[in-house]
Design brief:
The chain is α+β, with helices and mostly antiparallel strands. Strands 1, 2, 3, 4, 5 and 6 form a six-stranded mixed beta sheet that branches. The radius of gyration is 19 Å and the shape is globular. The protein starts with 10 loop residues before the first strand and ends with a helix. The mean pLDDT is 88.
């Protein structure tokens, strides 16, 4: 996530090592259109066509994709409700593999809001936590 808040919605920063086996090898910053998806890719809108940009303040980050903080909905969330807690993302910059035309603008799948569970009183008890955990495991 772009902690500097430089990236705009629709942009990403992608930096890769020239030699993945050598972390000290020179890095290459990807620039131009890229296709980003998350595993698993379940909906046509999970494929996002974004613009990879070079941001010097992010050059210390390597072998990763940096998403913007800006926007109504995050790009990871647009990929089947993904987030940044360990999800794996695919980034393709080969021009022949970047969707064009109508397939480029498929909207992301809507996310279902589950709301919050009601809590009786002002405090959350151990019983509330146990009930929440049990419900989570069962579902």
């Amino acid at each position: 996530l772009d902690e500097y808040r430089i990236l705009k919605y629709g942009q990403v920063f992608v930096s890769i090592s020239s030699n993945i086996d050598d972390p000290c090898s020179p890095c290459r910053v990807i620039k131009g259109p890229v296709t980003v998806s998350r595993s698993p890719c379940l909906h046509p809108g999970d494929l996002r066509v974004l613009e990879a940009v070079d941001i010097p303040q992010l050059h210390h980050l390597t072998n990763c994709i940096v998403f913007p903080q800006q926007g109504v909905r995050s790009h990871p969330s647009e990929c089947s409700g993904g987030d940044l807690d360990g999800d794996l993302y695919l980034c393709i910059w080969a021009p022949d593999l970047i969707p064009t035309g109508e397939s480029r603008v498929v909207p992301p799948a809507p996310i279902a809001s589950v709301g919050s569970a009601p809590v009786e009183g002002d405090r959350i008890s151990v019983s509330d936590i146990a009930g929440f955990f049990t419900h989570y495991v069962q579902n």
